[in-house]
Design goal:
alpha+beta; 7-stranded mixed β-sheet; 14 helices; 52% helix
Length: 384
């Protein structure tokens, strides 16, 4: 009989315990994969929205923790545009507002962005219904396709936000999940609705590239030193797109929460595995003693217990990965989540989750394996 077959027979003798233990590992691993996958999807979605448009630098207010808290004067865009190496720069206002469905009473968060109607950022959009925003559309709104489906709105309908009635002039689709799940308004219209006339949250910047062009770091440093005509600092903080994404407070919080919850889940899964393997050793004292009596070395006994533990954890890892993929796919279809992240989990996250499952099996099986290896053949004679 193959050694692996022997291990499987041992586990199948106690089918219920084997299934429950694997399910416990699956819950721990699935939770880890789902949470880490969602937080990574959140970060990658933000970064792809910047890189796809060729945005090299994002400018926000110095000292703020989150872009939504940033408050900059719109006219600072002229100082940035005058710098050597800057190709394009646009003012942008980002707001998060709640939309209440008049039929169901359910409220969802809508990510609103205010852009100038001639902004270069519209180039990546596909208008699938209605028309683009035009000059003078201050009381108009452009809905992302995901948001439009969730709230059941079409071009020509009325969309009420912050007690303001806005005309839906069109529905667009973007490569960015965030944008397809949000809405775009003319900058002046959003400023008026949020009582922030002349104020923006940031500036996306595209640089010139080629021989002799300044580097991203050089331009960023110049932006950070900018002052107005009276010599006062504009209080700008310029960061390369990738660094901005990694340092964004909402993304760091998502990563931290995912990590903490995952650690708790893994700890619980490890305790469950430890309990199962200790019980297995206690119940099989006679069997293990007989194996020692017929010549099994301690290392082979350790390999048997660890092997069983690893098989349990591997099965749990596979079940957890499948469950995480299905769960995330379902969660991202909910209206409250659909506009903020995709339902895709990176293969790297799944692989890391599977390795974590094996680690749970190894940690949970070490002490029971050690205890089993210390049993003497005479122990079986005293065991009932």
């Amino acid at each position: 009989m193959w050694f692996s077959t022997f291990l499987l027979k041992n586990l199948l003798r106690r089918k219920t315990r084997t299934l429950l233990t694997s399910c416990g590992v699956a819950v721990a691993v699935g939770t880890t994969i789902a949470l880490l996958g969602l937080s990574e999807s959140f970060e990658n979605g933000t970064l792809s929205a910047l890189e796809k448009r060729g945005i090299d630098i994002v400018i926000v207010e110095r000292g703020v923790l989150d872009q939504l808290s940033s408050d900059l004067q719109e006219n600072a865009v002229d100082y940035v545009a005058a710098l050597p190496g800057v190709s394009k720069v646009e003012p942008a206002l980002v707001e998060l507002m709640g939309y209440t469905d008049p039929n169901t009473g359910n409220t969802i968060n809508v990510l609103l962005q205010g852009w100038r109607t001639d902004s270069f950022q519209f180039a990546e959009f596909e208008i699938i219904e209605g028309r683009p925003l035009q000059e003078g559309d201050d009381k108009a709104i452009l809905l992302g396709v995901t948001l439009a489906e969730n709230v059941k709105k079409h071009a020509g309908d009325t969309f009420v936000l912050n007690e303001e009635e806005l005309e839906v002039v069109g529905v667009f689709e973007s490569f960015s999940t965030f944008e397809s799940g949000g809405a775009i308004m003319p900058l002046k219209g959003l400023q008026a609705m949020s009582f922030r006339e002349g104020s923006v949250t940031g500036f996306p910047v595209i640089l010139e590239h080629g021989p002799g062009a300044p580097t991203v770091a050089e331009v960023a440093e110049q932006i950070n030193q900018l002052k107005d005509n009276e010599g006062r600092s504009l209080n700008l903080l310029a960061r390369p797109s990738r660094e901005y994404t990694q340092e964004a407070m909402h993304i760091k919080m998502a990563h931290a929460m995912a990590l903490m919850t995952s650690l708790i889940a893994v700890f619980v899964g490890g305790i469950g595995m430890l309990n199962t393997m200790i019980m297995s050793v206690v119940e099989r004292v006679r069997e293990i003693s007989i194996l020692r009596a017929i010549g099994w070395r301690k290392s082979r006994v350790v390999a048997m217990i660890l092997g069983e533990s690893l098989i349990l954890s591997a099965v749990g890892g596979v079940l957890g990965a499948i469950g995480a993929v299905v769960l995330v796919s379902l969660l991202t279809k909910l209206p409250t989540v659909a506009g903020f992240m995709t339902g895709r989990i990176a293969p790297q996250v799944i692989f890391e989750g599977f390795l974590l499952a094996l680690a749970v099996g190894m940690i949970g099986g070490l002490f029971p394996a050690y205890r089993a290896a210390q049993l003497m053949p005479s122990e079986g004679l005293r065991s009932e």
